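Hey L., structure's done. Input below.
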Amino acid sequence: MKRIILVCLAACGGGGDSDDGMQMPDAAMNEPIVNGKPASQYYAQFAHATTKAEVGGAAAFPAQSDGRNAFLAQFFLMPNGKLVLFYAEGEGSVTSTGHALNIIGATKKKREGTWKVDGAQLVLDAFMRCDGFTLNDKDALRCTLATSIVTAAAQGKSGTFQNGIGMSSPDDSEFADYVP
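Output:
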């Protein structure tokens, strides 16, 4: 009877012992890869603890009677899976590399919930689902609004999201007029 021995040439992780005493790889070894990194590591780089800033982006949707044609979302991936999302709608332009919007104050909404990595996606409670990709040699997110927050026409629309610049938090004064 032949015995096959598996040799791990790279770090195999700290898996549990099998009946014969061999180390078996962790389930993390089977984690989906996003841009060359395990999904949990890829999305961790967008967490507030890492960035000290928000993740923000915008997406266009069909123009409404009052001129609204896009949404702006900024979110914070806080410790312990807590999510703080700031959402607003306005009029302007959105491209894959940026946006210029005039925000309508009455559309500013604050939502709280949880975030998690589900397979190869980042899930922002029931609000958004994000996929990782590379934009201008930097890791970014392509997030799709999963549920209507203000305008139903925005649901299902996707935009490019990146880490903010500088220090910011959900308690900053710029978010004071967002209502639950």
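The mean pLDDT is 87. Residues 37-175 form a domain with the Lipocalin fold (CATH 2.40.128).

-- N.
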